Amino acid sequence: MTYTPHRSKAGPRHAPPQRPYPDRVEPGSYPDDVEPRRARNWIVGGVIVSAGLVGFGAWAVVTTPPQVLTIAVAPGDSPAPGFDVEVTGVRCGVASVGPDGMEQQAAGQFCLLDVEVTNNGAEPMLFDSAAQRVRDTDGEAYAVAEQAAVFLNDHGSSLLNEIEPGETVDGVLPFDMPDGARPSDAELSDGLTTSGVRVNLPDPR
What we know:
Blueprint: H1 34-63, E1 72-73, E2 83-97, E3 104-119, E4 133-136, E5 141-143, H2 146-152, E6 168-177, E7 183-188, E8 197-200
Parallel strand pairs: 1-8
Antiparallel strand pairs: 2-3, 3-6, 4-5, 4-7, 7-8
């Protein structure tokens, strides 16, 4: 009799368990809502950046000062086609203008530009006093004080009326400026165009 040792049946051999790496994630193994949420975050971020760029562009347009075409010229040169304007004098330190009881008081002082305006066109035209500006020695610009201009030019042939072709009228352009300020130059325009010419002013008297 032959003895055969008993052998148990060999079972499947199991590989030792692999230690997972928490910092390695296979593609497609994210939870269902992670990748859509990431896409949404990119979209929202892009919208915010685009809105910021648009807002900055609008701010730059609004805050950029408009260009004014000015030319340094001697007093007496024409500011624009149609009118010749000559500044004949400058007076400062005027506290008020107008008739008694209806005076127009200056917030600071009135500086008055005495001017001669000639219509070189072929038709009667109004001279736009409101389009004129002066600048002080610090570069600050001032517009015509309109009510004071009415008082100062309330006479027969004046800047308030149409000027006939070839006619020259005398007028006064008042500017309400701070006490002690002195006008350095005037930007004169016929009111028909956006540009004017810059005229150096004589010293006030």
